[in-house]
Amino acid sequence: MTDKQASVTDPQPFLERTRRQLRGLYFGRDREALRFQLAMLFIDVAVLVFFIAGPYLRTGPAYVIVDYAIAAVIAFELAARALIAPNLRYWALRPMTWVDIVILGTLLFPNQLHNFAFLRVLRIWAISQSKLVTLTLRRIGYGYLEDIIQACVNFLVFLFLVTGFVYSNFFYGAEGFEGFVDALYFSVATVTTTGFGDITLPGTLGKLTSIVTMIVGISLFVRLAQAIVRPYKVTFPCPECGLSRHDADAVHCKACGHVLNIPDEGA
Hints:
Blueprint: H1 2-9, H2 11-27, H3 31-53, H4 63-84, H5 88-93, H6 95-108, H7 122-128, H8 131-139, H9 146-170, H10 178-191, H11 203-229, E1 233-235, E2 245-247
Antiparallel strand pairs: 1-2
Helix pairs in contact: 2-3, 4-6, 7-9, 9-10, 9-11
């Protein structure tokens, strides 16, 4: 009876222990956690490099091996984030969860899901959201660039998302690098509202793609310009009213006048 009880109760402590260990690695600030986060960051960068160079490596014998190895890494990340999430509903509702699922599908079934391969560029956005990147910027004295870098990343991610979508749906049959260059050229001309008109997308889908690209692209471009020219602000919640954004040298909260004690990032 005791052995049966042990066999029933053993998996739960193991699962909880695994969950605690993963949370410590993903969110901790000790040396082991930072090493793990740095390793995952390097893996994400390597995956991104593979995605960029992928179209030119398909003829190589090692392509399939690397492709499935990256699929295993992404599957591990999905499972790990499901374990450390407060609940499965929270995990399932995160946009990056579904993006990673689609990316995993494009790796496992490249011929059937090549039209969704452009979503792989969202890994850039995932890398930029890493707390390790933010902490590194602050430690080396470049914390004031956080907003500018994030605005640049958002703009570039959208630009290459559009480029990937246009290439997959309109220029996929072009020879060599020419199709991608045409897709990138169209995307840049549309986002900047230059509109040379020498390359246009046919049909209703092409028109809708152009409309969405212009509206969202110009909004992100304005957001980038604002991040560059506006004064730098730090994230420090006011203990009195909760206002989270303040000037770096602020002594009082501009909303309620409460005395602030903002840490000096350069110290």
